[in-house]
Write a structure and sequence with these properties.
Strand content: under 5%
Distance between the termini: 43 Å
Number of helices: 21
Structural class: mainly alpha
Shape: globular
Largest sheet: none
Length: 464
C-alpha cells in the first residue's frame, strides 16, 4: 500500500501541476495522502516533516532566488538584456537566426539572468528574425530552450544559476567544479542541439512551411532609443562571473575562517563550511551585479527602480515557495517506509563502480517527477547526498564530479510538460504544447543523454 500511495501522490501532483494548479497548495495535500497510505498521522506529517523541510530550503536558498530575480528584473528594466539580445541578432542576421537566438539566451543565462526573464527578453527578437527568415514560429520555444535551459544553466562551470549552486552545500565545492566535464558537456549539447534545430528548419522548408499566420502574442514595437550601449550592458553579467571567481578561487581560500568562528554568529555554521563560503561568494557577486545594472543606464532606469526591486522580490517569493513545497513533498516521501526500497534500488545502480550513474538517474528522475530541476536535485541530495559523497571517497573520486553530474542531470527530465518554465515559455510565445513541446522535449532528451555519455567517457578517461 505504501508504494501505491507514493505513486498515486506523485501522479496526482504531476497532473495538477500540468493542469495549472499551484504546487504550493497541492504538494502538502498529496504528501499527506502518501503518508496516510503508509499509516502515518496527518497533522504530524504536515507540521513536523513537511514544513521543516520547506523552511530549511527557504533558509538556505532564498538569497539566491531573491537576488537572482531582482538582478534579472533590473537587467530587463534597464534595457541591458534587450540590448545584448538585439546586438547578437543584428550581427548574425537572418541566415543564422536560430544560432543568434540560442547565443542571446545563453549569454544572458550564463550571466545570471533568470530563465523567465531571459525568455521575455529574447522572444521579441526571436519572433522578428524568425519572421524575416520565414522559419516556423513553432520552433522558437525549442530554440530558446537550448540557449537558456541547457548548457549555460548547469553544464558550463561558473554559471550562477541556482541549479549550479545547490550542490555546493552538499559536496563542499564551488561554481567552477569539474570544468572539463562541464565544458565538454556544454560543447556537445550546443553542437548537437544546433544540428537538431537546423534539421527541423530544413524539414519545414521542404514541406513549404514558413513563419505562419494568425499567431497570437506577436511582439509589439517598443521604443529602443534609451537602450544602453552593448558594452555597458554586459558589465553586470561579467561582474557576477568575475566577482564569484575571485572570491571562490582567490579570497576565500586564503581566509582563515577558523579564527573568525570565535564570534557567536559563526558558531551556527554547518560542517560544510567551504560550500557555505562559496554561497556567500555568489550572494556578494549578485549584489555587485545588481548595483552595476542599476547605474549603467540612468535614463532607462528613471522611474523604474522600485518596479524592478518589487517585481523581482515578488517573483522570487513565488519561485522559492514553489520549489520549497516540492522539497517538503519529497521530504515526506523519503521518510515513508516504502521509499526505502525505492532508495535502495536507486543507490544500488552500478554498485560495483562509481556513484555517478546512480546519482544521475536519481536526480533526473526526481527532477522529472517534481517538474523542477532545483526541487528534484534538492530532494535527491538531501536524501542521498551524504551516501554519494562517502561512496566517492571510497573509490577515490573527486566530489567535483558529483557536483557537476547532479547539476547537469537536474536539467534533464525536469522540462516535462508540467514544468513551470516550459509553460511560461509557451505562454510568452502564444503557442501550445501540441505546437511546440516536441522540440523542447527533444532538447531535453539530448541534454539527458549527454550526461550519461559523459559519465561513460569519464569512466574511460578519468577527467574532471
Amino acid at each position: 500500500m505504501g508504494v501505491i500511495g507514493i505513486l498515486l501522490a506523485l501522479a496526482l501532483l504531476m497532473f495538477m501541476a500540468y493542469r495549472g494548479f499551484s504546487v504550493i497548495f497541492f504538494a502538502p495535500i498529496f504528501a499527506i495522502l502518501a503518508a496516510v497510505f503508509s499509516g502515518m498521522a496527518v497533522l504530524p506529517t504536515y507540521t513536523e516533516i513537511f514544513l521543516p523541510a520547506l523552511a530549511n530550503y527557504v533558509k538556505i536558498f532564498f538569497p539566491f532566488f531573491l537576488l537572482g530575480a531582482i538582478f534579472g528584473k533590473v537587467m530587463e528594466e534597464s534595457g541591458a538584456a534587450r540590448a545584448i539580445a538585439k546586438t547578437i541578432v543584428s550581427r548574425l542576421g537572418a541566415k543564422r537566426a536560430m544560432l543568434s537566438v540560442v547565443l542571446s539566451a545563453a549569454i544572458l543565462t550564463y550571466g545570471g539572468v533568470s530563465l523567465f526573464v531571459v525568455a521575455f527578453a529574447v522572444y521579441p527578437f526571436a519572433a522578428s528574425i524568425f519572421k524575416e527568415a520565414d522559419i516556423p514560429k513553432r520552433l522558437i520555444p525549442g530554440t530558446i530552450a537550448l540557449g537558456a535551459f541547457t548548457f549555460t544553466m548547469d553544464a558550463l562551470p561558473g554559471t550562477p544559476q541556482i541549479q549550479n549552486s545547490i550542490p555546493m552545500k552538499f559536496f563542499n565545492t564551488d561554481l567552477y567544479a569539474a570544468p572539463v566535464f562541464g565544458i565538454l558537456g556544454g560543447i556537445i549539447i550546443l553542437i548537437c542541439g544546433m544540428f537538431y534545430l537546423e534539421w527541423r528548419k530544413r524539414s519545414a522548408e521542404k514541406a513549404g512551411e514558413g513563419y505562419g499566420t494568425g499567431h497570437t502574442m506577436e511582439p509589439e514595437t517598443v521604443d529602443e532609443r534609451h537602450l544602453p550601449k552593448v558594452w555597458l550592458a554586459t558589465i553586470p553579467l561579467v561582474s557576477v562571473l568575475a566577482v564569484t571567481l575571485v572570491l571562490q578561487k582567490v579570497v576565500f581560500p586564503r581566509w582563515d575562517i577558523k579564527a573568525e568562528m570565535t564570534a557567536d554568529p559563526y558558531k551556527m555554521l554547518p560542517a560544510g563550511i567551504i560550500g557555505t563560503m562559496n554561497n556567500w561568494a555568489l550572494i556578494i557577486a549578485l549584489v555587485v551585479g545588481i548595483s552595476l545594472a542599476f547605474v549603467i543606464n540612468p535614463r532607462g532606469m528613471k522611474g523604474n527602480f522600485a518596479r524592478a526591486i518589487n517585481l523581482g522580490a515578488i517573483g522570487s517569493l513565488l519561485a522559492v515557495l514553489n520549489t520549497a513545497s516540492e522539497v517538503g513533498f519529497g521530504n515526506v516521501i523519503k521518510t515513508l517506509p516504502a521509499f526505502k526500497s525505492i532508495g535502495q534500488a536507486l543507490t544500488g545502480i552500478n554498485g560495483g563502480g562509481n556513484p555517478l550513474l546512480s546519482e544521475a538517474v536519481t536526480v533526473n528522475t526526481l527532477a522529472g517527477v517534481t517538474g523542477s530541476a532545483s526541487g528534484g536535485m534538492s530532494i535527491a541530495l538531501d536524501t542521498f547526498g551524504k551516501d554519494y559523497l562517502d561512496w566517492a571517497h571510497r573509490v577515490g573520486m573527486s566530489p567535483e564530479l558529483l557536483h557537476r553530474v547532479a547539476s547537469m542531470a537536474s536539467g534533464g527530465m525536469e522540462t516535462l510538460p508540467h514544468n513551470g518554465a516550459v509553460i511560461t515559455l509557451l505562454g510568452i510565445a502564444g503557442l501550445t504544447h501540441k505546437q511546440s513541446y516536441r522540440d523542447i522535449f527533444a532538447i531535453t532528451v539530448l541534454k539527458t543523454g549527454t550526461v550519461f555519455l559523459l559519465i561513460g567517457l569519464q569512466a574511460l578517461f578519468n577527467f574532471v
